[in-house]
Amino acid sequence: MPKYAVVIPAFNEAKTVREVTEQVLKNSIDLVIVVDDGSTDGTADTVRDLPIMLIEHEQNQGKAVALVNGMKHAADHGVDAVITLDADGQHKPEDIPRFIKAYEENTNHIIIGARLADKHLIPRKRYIANKIANFWISWAAGYPIEDSQSGFRLYPAELIRSIDIKVSKDKSFVFESEILIKAAQLNYYSTPIKIAAIYEEDSRPSHFRGGMDITYITRMVAWSLITRFFYLPGLYRSAIKPQWHRNDAPFLFRYCCDWGITLFLATV
């Protein structure tokens, strides 16, 4: 039987992390890891008595470092896949069996919890930002990605063991975008499953730093495209081809465009 771990990065989440962790423990998970990333509100103390692995950072190092630290520990314990979800209650641990089922049907895929179907529940600015990010990250990865900014995911442990991405506090929110691009280069693609978009009115402010984090993500994607001469095949496969293959497009038009663009891109 495959073995699974869940990694929960947490920074000042004393209000919600215990309930989230207890809900995770109700699932058949072999290892649960909470990474307390230098919290100052007693986050670690709220889960210390639970049957989990607790990793404590003395100082806040950012979500990317917390994620990678937890994921590496999980992979070192011999699991087959690692599930990540946030500690703020935005993700429902009850969905974990659906991630496992999707993974077992799509081995060696990253499973992403896609929220964008619930458009009316997502703050407008965040929805637009996510759609824009989807376009650019899909281009750089070379295939359509439905929710590139979702943190509720399942990663094959072999991908975690083989991939090398430099992380830092300054680029805390770059990692989850960059790993999709790097994974695709290693032939690990993603499969989406629909999850609820949960945005509580009394939830704590997002750790996402607006313009600064968007700038870092943009630089990462731009560099990935520039170093591959703008990766035109990726643009075709992620954005152009899916439109041409819509059911309402005439068959002959789709067929000719498909082969014509493929031949063109093969020569550039």
Which features does this protein show?
disordered C terminus; single chain; 268 residues; 7 strands
Quick structural overview:
This protein has 268 residues and is of the alpha/beta class.
Could you explain the architecture of this structure?
The relative contact order is 0.13. The chain has two domains: 226 residues, Spore Coat Polysaccharide Biosynthesis Protein SpsA, Chain A (Alpha-Beta Complex); 38 residues. It is of the alpha/beta class and 268 residues long. The protein has a seven-stranded mixed beta sheet, sandwiched between helices.
CATH architecture of the largest domain: Alpha-Beta Complex
Look at the structure and give the mean pLDDT: 87
Shape: globular
**Major sheet, described briefly?**
7 strands, mixed
- Distance between the first and last residues' Cα: 46 Å
- Count of DSSP-assigned helices: 10
* SSE string: EHEHEHEHEHEHHEHHH
Give the strand order, joined by hyphens, for the main sheet. Answer: 3-2-1-4-6-5-7
Compute the number of strand runs: 7
List the helices and strands and how they pair.
Blueprint: E1 4-10, H1 17-25, E2 31-37, H2 43-47, E3 53-57, H3 63-76, E4 81-84, H4 96-105, E5 110-114, H5 124-141, E6 153-156, H6 157-162, H7 175-185, E7 190-194, H8 210-226, H9 232-244, H10 251-267
Parallel strand pairs: 1-2, 1-4, 2-3, 5-7
Antiparallel strand pairs: 4-6, 5-6
Helix pairs in contact: 5-7, 5-8, 5-9, 9-10
